[in-house]
Design a protein that fits this description.
Blueprint: H1 3-6, H2 29-39, E1 50-54, E2 69-72, H3 78-88, E3 93-99, H4 100-106, H5 108-117, E4 121-127, H6 162-168, E5 173-178, H7 182-194, E6 199-204, H8 216-219, H9 224-227, E7 228-230, E8 238-239, E9 245-249, E10 255-259, H10 278-285, E11 294-301, H11 307-322, H12 327-331
Parallel strand pairs: 1-2, 1-3, 3-4, 4-6, 5-6, 7-11
Antiparallel strand pairs: 5-11, 8-9, 9-10
Length: about 350
């Protein structure tokens, strides 16, 4: 009998815990948690082989609410902790749950290095464009002019584009979804789980207390079709409730929105998530509402060796050459002293 056949059939209820959910009413985190619990039973991975690592923030309560192993680490360090875990235990499926402040401010350096190393981690970044846990200060993704408790006259900072950061670091899987777009989010999480390497997913998440409605353009049924492009591999970039608009590369190499009354679909830019060159995904990441329709879905999905896989192979090769290590011999090698 195969190992897969011996695995128990799991349901979303198997991933529920007895912990009280301590998020504000109507917080987008509830929806993300619900879709994650739907996806996990479909992966064919035992619960004891899954680990959720988080940093600090509203999103970082996540490990308490999923019945797997978990690690609530410190502010911004979740990618570093998760990297160490994955290298030590490459057999585990490791998820990183983080927020825009946790990942892109104090944790920016750790995030970049996890991505550029291509550690086999599933990094889910909840982006609500605000610091929610500390009561409404502006974050690295807050738009210019945003008035908050820490920017009473409006933020003068240019916001970070999380997907551009991830793509620039060479991420092998990059995607975007929204908290209440249930089917789309579930499919995106499934794709991230299946990817071998760093999967970076930005999820637009509504903080209804400190930044309510920030992503209505991408979540309201009567708006999202006109404001978003839903990416499909090998298909042209078409959008609009009537699917009457598209995006093409103009003569100067820039993206522009056109009417399908004036151009044919064949003249539009076709999406290629498997393009090795970063320029295609990076161009798409530059499309930002309200100046252009925002892409949703998988921007990039390519394969290259993982950091944890390379370390594991390096250790296997070394053991084959010199045998298993001897800790006692190591302690007594090199410069040693006897203290009397």
């Amino acid at each position: 009998m195969s190992v897969e056949a011996e695995l128990p059939v799991l349901t979303p209820k198997d991933f529920a815990t007895d912990q009280e959910l301590r998020w504000c009413p109507r917080c987008g985190d509830y929806s993300i948690l619900a879709q994650m619990k739907k996806v996990l039973p479909t992966l064919g991975v035992p619960r004891e082989k899954m680990v959720f690592v988080s940093g600090i923030g509203c999103s970082s309560r996540f490990p308490y609410y999923v019945s797997t192993y978990g690690f609530h680490s410190i502010h911004g360090r979740a990618p570093a902790v998760a990297t160490g875990l994955k290298v030590a235990r490459p057999d585990l499926m490791v998820w990183v749950i983080t927020g825009d402040g946790d990942a892109l401010s104090i944790g920016g350096n750790h995030l970049l290095h996890a991505i550029r190393r291509n550690v086999d981690l599933k990094i889910i970044m909840f982006n609500n464009q605000i610091y929610g846990l500390t009561k409404g200060q502006y974050s690295p993704t807050s738009p210019q002019g945003k008035k908050t408790k820490s920017t009473p006259y409006g933020s003068v900072d240019a916001p970070l584009n999380p997907l551009s950061v991830a793509i620039g670091a060479g991420a092998t899987f990059v995607a975007r979804s929204a908290d209440v777009d249930i089917q789309h989010l579930s499919e995106t999480l499934e794709r991230a789980a299946a990817h071998k390497g760093t999967a970076f997913v930005e999820v637009y998440q509504d903080c209804n207390v400190f930044n309510s409605g920030a992503f209505e353009f991408a979540t309201k049924k009567d708006q999202k079709q006109d404001n978003c492009i839903y990416l499909e591999h090998g298909r042209p970039l078409v959008f609009g409730a009537q699917r009457d608009r598209g995006v093409r590369l103009n003569g100067t190499g820039h993206l522009e929105v056109v009417s399908l009354d004036e151009v044919k679909e064949d003249d539009l830019l076709f999406h290629d998530e498997q393009e090795e060159d970063l320029s295609h995904a990076f161009r798409l990441a530059q499309l930002r509402w309200p100046h252009a329709p925002e892409p949703m879905g998988v921007f990039r999905d390519v394969q290259r060796p993982t950091y944890d896989g390379a370390v594991d192979q390096q250790l296997r090769d070394r053991r084959a050459q010199v045998g298993e290590g001897d800790l006692e011999a190591l302690f007594n090698s090199g410069d040693t002293w006897e203290v009397h």
